[in-house]
Amino acid sequence: MATVLIIGAGGVSRVVTKKCAMNSAVFSHIVLASRTKSKCDQIANEIKESLHVTIETAAIDADDVEALVALIKKVNPALVMNIALPYQDLTIMDACIKTNVPYLDTANYEHPDLAKFEYKEQWARDKAFKDAGIMALLGSGFDPGVTNVFCAYAQQYLFDEINSIDILDCNAGDHGYAFATNFNPEINLREVSSKGRYWENGEWIETEPVSVKMVWDYPEVGPKDSYLLYHEELESLVQNIKGLKRIRFFMTFGQSYLTHMKCLENVGMLRIDEVDVDGVKIVPIQLLKALLPDPASLGPRTVGFTNIGCVFEGLKDGQKRKVYIYNVCDHQECYRETGAQAVSYTTGVPAMIGAKMMLEGKWAGKGVFNMEQFDAKPFMDELNVQGLPWKTIEMKPDETFEIK
Ligand code: NDP
């Protein structure tokens, strides 16, 4: 029985808040706060109607540490869940340190003016969290999040040593728009248009944006063009997976998405610096965000499936072993259950499960942690009962789903 403070009221938060309300034995009192209070009220009203659970709402500017401290003191939660944007990670962490309240998020800190994804500044707060006697859980979404837990599960239960990991993220959903992003456009486009990077034999190898492509035959979905990207979970996994020689991340994109993105980039619409338009300062990517469909509105019109998983190669009892662990999610089923499409759903459900692990004391500690640092089993069990069941394929050492 615990009070939880959820910050942010976008597509992912809709799922987190509903899933917490559906687990009211653990989340007995939920407060939802965001920049625009009316968005919190809308989610709260929907939950009241469908689940008969009351959600308290509040307005908060999460860039303001003192305002956050005041809100946290007023609500007195057992946990703060940061479901706003990566820009707010540090201010919310600092407010948690000042009030001695545990913290959870779904994406690593990003400076608004630098398209850089790294844990450095969040890990730097480890001592402050230790000194405050509290825990921070970083990246409790799907990727990062469930992908880290799949890696931990493979390391703890399936392999003696893991030598290679490929993380494979496929969204085969169709929303019917020529161009839209499935989560916050600014964060999404900054990620995809950045240089790719993977880790091999102790070194980071950089690639030009979306230049390394393969066709992967995703189980239950089919073959899709998949592109090598840098993704934030790689940074912690290279530190925490023993024996690792290579780790890569691939994500699917359709040709229409890539052509639009390239065109927008070529005309300067992905720029994250200010430009002067007749005396008015505009950040092009923020204007683009305002023009594109709100990801939270894609739910009713998105059909198809996501398939996100990991292929592991390594050794077990002296023998080569290769295992594929993945989850398949149906956009329309997610929408029926929560009013959100599968990208929000696959992020929001693990955020709730991470919070549940912390509140039930199954994942405990003092300091700043990534998901793979805990026992994967209780989290994997929860995935099966909370809407994200996973499957395992035992592969032959030379078997692949790549279509050459
Ligand atoms: P949205 O843009 O839909 O929602 C973000 C919410 O945060 C909005 O309600 C917004 O308020 C609020 N917000 C923004 N700035 C502030 C602020 N300064 N103070 C208070 N509230 C603020 O994003 P999503 O729901 O799509 O994504 C949420 C998070 O999930 C992001 O960090 C994203 O990177 C992460 N994510 C993680 C994934 C994973 O697998 N790990 C996958 C997908 C997303 P307003 O409504 O007023 O704009």
TrEMBL record:
Gene3D superfamilies per the UniProt record, alphabetical: Dihydrodipicolinate Reductase, domain 2, NAD(P)-binding Rossmann-like Domain
Limits of the Saccharopine dehydrogenase NADP binding domain: 4-137
Domain of life where this protein originates: Bacteria
GO molecular function, a single term: carboxynorspermidine dehydrogenase activity
Pfam families: Sacchrp_dh_C, Sacchrp_dh_NADP
Domain Saccharopine dehydrogenase-like C-terminal: 141-387
First-tier enzyme category under EC: oxidoreductase
Keyword Oxidoreductase: yes
Keyword annotations from UniProtKB, A to Z: Oxidoreductase
Signal sequence segment: none
EC numbers: 1.5.1.43
This protein's name: Saccharopine dehydrogenase, putative
Species for this entry: Sulfurospirillum multivorans
